[in-house]
């Protein structure tokens, strides 16, 4: 599946899908399995608007029941981070996670999840749907027999929860922090003891002092995990994840067996959830943030010199990985070339709005 086919199938639209569904419904029902890296009952990821459950419900409705996808959340069928391999092996047809969880096996896949000092949700989606993002995603996964597409977006994330104030880069030395992906490499270079934990293990690790800090998503999702009761300081900048994309990985043989109509339905449902999940986060983060403040959480902005030090470390991180992996370099070069172009528009639009117009009297 390439971007152009994705756009054609996603462009079928709700009306066309509705017209197609009576024909699809007469076909034999297909039973699929979808594993996830997320705990059950987790809004945004597991339940509610834009979630993976929302996605499967939409596929079921639009196909008239012809494609019935059963969800298995983290640990219910396979461990949290083993769903992608289950897709590769044909054990299940789909997996939902963030691609940086598999960075050790496919370094280039991190650009399809979260890019430190990268683009916003708007820019990331522009790269996916109009630029070369989805083409490169599937080119990266082709040797593994997997196709992929975005099925969720968090928007800008928070730096995370800390059990102490961060006033300088020295305060990061020896800090045990749950942080995945490319950002974890930058943190490690400034002395952080980086830990990779699935969502369901973050709260107990932080509460018991196994880790000193943790990054999850944003206020609405962090509240559900109870992270505000496990640490006092809540930092922001979003440098590490200007947006984070939920990946829908699909076994290619299974995908090819769907046919054009069901592929169009899956693509439409995934694209819808990509937008709706981001909308859910934007609608719910403010109330959660206010609740944190009222409950005694101390909100902080990561000091500029700390951000500058982390940014200085990202260059070597990118260079090292690019030197080791040709596909990483190819995707990286394409991503940042697109970002350079998109930044021109972002500077003239969103940046001006945030810095000048929003608070104008």
Radius of gyration computed on alpha carbons: 20 Å
Give me the number of helical elements.
Answer: 14
The helix fraction, in percent, is 40-55%
Characterize the overall form: globular
Structural class label: alpha/beta
Tell me about this structure.
With 361 residues, the chain is an alpha/beta fold. It has helices spanning 3-10, 13-25, 52-62, 83-88, 121-129, 133-141, 181-189, 202-207, 219-225, 252-256, 260-294, 304-324, 326-348, 350-357; strands at residues 30-36, 67-72, 94-97, 146-153, 158-162, 176-178, 193-195, 213-214, 233-236, 245-251, 298-301. The chain has a six-stranded mixed β-sheet, with helices on one face. Strands 2-1-3-10-4 form a five-stranded mixed β-sheet. It is globular, with a radius of gyration of 20 Å. Residues 12-22 have low confidence and may be disordered.
